[in-house]
Specification:
With about 160 residues, the chain is mostly helical. It is built from five helices and two strands. About 60% of the residues lie in helices and about 5% in strands.
């Protein structure tokens, strides 16, 4: 498996796991506001990094005002955008550089592979927080472990 194939699998997993979090939150009579805010942040961060990779201005704040009603649409759009982006990349492109300014105004240059890896790890971190917030309300969080997606045969064939 190439690094690009691995990343495509990771993004497939990430998209599924984010939608699973949304599914559980949508099923709750009163989803915890902190969990909804975290999911909105995951979405905003993905758009932010996508815009950076395209050298476009950011379309939203890193911590946007929570708009739970648009999360489903945004997650589906992000799935399509990332599939298309990753479909155009070559293995050599992963070593390419992306220059950007962070939300504090500091300038950085990072390898594309590191940015893509950051997105996956960042979302997993916050999904753990979402699960904790759901448990605090006495409900059961979504089972979003990577191996669960593998067992369900949700990933690209290796």
């Amino acid at each position: 498996m190439t690094a690009l194939d691995f990343l495509r699998n990771q993004f497939t997993y990430d998209s599924w796991a984010n939608r699973e979090e949304l599914r559980v939150l949508s099923s709750l009579p009163h989803p915890p506001e902190s969990a909804v805010k975290l999911l909105s942040h995951i979405i905003a961060a993905q758009w932010l990094w996508f815009d950076r990779l395209q050298n476009n201005p950011p379309r939203s704040a890193v911590w946007p005002e929570t708009d739970f009603s648009h999360c489903a649409t945004q997650l589906l759009e992000l799935d399509s955008v990332w599939r298309s982006y990753l479909g155009r990349l070559s293995e050599a492109d992963l070593a390419g550089l992306c220059s950007y300014t962070n939300s504090k105004g500091d300038a950085f240059t990072s390898q594309i592979i590191d940015i893509l890896n950051q997105l996956i790890l960042h979302a997993a971190h916050h999904r753990g927080q979402i699960s904790l917030e759901i448990r605090r309300t006495g409900h059961v969080p979504a089972p979003v472990d990577y191996i669960h997606a593998v067992r369900k045969d949700l990933l690209v064939q290796r």
